[in-house]
Design brief:
By secondary structure, the chain is of the alpha+beta class. It has one domain (3-94): 2-Layer Sandwich (Alpha-Beta Plaits), CATH 3.30.70.100. The chain has helices at 17-32, 61-68, 71-80, and strands at residues 3-12, 37-43, 51-58, 84-94. It has a four-stranded antiparallel beta sheet. The longest helix has 16 residues, at 17-32. The chain starts with a strand and ends with a strand.
């Protein structure tokens, strides 16, 4: 069975960048402790201060579904939503 990888690209308002990064670092740490999480990294591109990437790897769809239903994820999204300019998620299959 192939694992599921997700790359999420955020464009964050400059006045909220540091808050967003700290929020996402905590979210990544909690996510890594979930069953089925194989990778969860926060990436800060060197060429664009407003852009922040998440790279996630999940064992399977069931693990991703369980993550998607956590109250912590809902709370995190609610917190960061007003800080965003845009959000784009790309879902991939990794063999």
């Amino acid at each position: 069975m192939s694992r599921i990888m997700i790359v999420v690209e955020f464009e964050v308002k400059s006045e909220h960048r540091s808050q967003f990064v700290e929020l996402m670092k905590g979210h990544a740490q909690r996510s890594r402790a979930e069953d089925g999480c194989q990778q969860f990294d926060v990436l800060l591109p060197q060429d664009n201060g407003g852009r922040i990437l998440l790279v996630e790897a999940w064992r399977d769809q069931a693990a991703l579904d369980a993550h998607s239903k956590t109250p912590a994820l809902a709370k995190t999204r609610q917190t960061y939503q007003p800080w965003l300019v845009s959000r784009k998620a790309t879902r991939c299959i990794a063999d």
